[in-house]
Design goal:
- The protein is about 40% helix and about 10% strand.
- A four-stranded parallel beta sheet has the order 1-2-3-4.
- The N and C termini lie far apart (about 35 Å).
- β3 (about 70-75), α4 (about 85-90) and β4 (about 100) form a beta-alpha-beta unit.
- It is an alpha/beta fold.
Length: about 150
């Protein structure tokens, strides 16, 4: 059965929605739920995937979840703010689909800028455009882009 999506906030165009959960209790059968969402025409977008060690420490689980949802890394995490080692590993190893802010106010913008600089310095301009421009456009359209590899 397709999941009910009534009342779930979505990105413009209604094809994708942002999702986050507590890092300490990842929902049971998450990858199956993500598949159901995609079948229903909604792309799940996982915010700051680097925080979910239950997912990121298991290659098979990470691959299964990344096959049915867009995985976002927080730009601030690339600077050492939160889970930076995991965030950098996920980006370097090509697991994430896009990079985004988790900015809650103007004070967070400096960390975002540093995260952008880290991406540019470590992966180059092509990766920067793909992770910050091209892939997010696909995600908002409900299309799962290839992860950065």
């Amino acid at each position: 059965l397709a999941p009910k999506m009534e009342g779930v906030p979505r990105y413009p165009g209604d094809a994708a929605f942002l999702l986050e959960f507590t890092p300490f209790a990842v929902p049971i059968n998450l990858r199956h739920h993500f598949y159901d969402f995609q079948v229903a025409g909604s792309l799940p977008v996982v915010a700051h995937v680097e925080r979910y060690q239950h997912i990121t420490d298991n290659k098979e689980r990470l691959e299964a979840i990344g096959a049915n949802s867009a995985l976002l890394v927080n730009l601030a995490s690339l600077t050492g703010w939160w889970s930076s080692r995991d965030a950098r590993r996920l980006v370097r190893d090509g697991w994430v689909h896009a990079a985004a802010t988790d900015a809650h106010g103007p004070a967070d913008l400096d960390l975002c800028q540093k995260g952008i600089a880290w991406l540019h310095a470590k992966l180059g301009e092509d990766a920067l455009y793909r992770l910050l421009r091209d892939n997010p456009r696909q995600i908002i359209a409900g299309q799962l882009p290839e992860a950065w590899r």
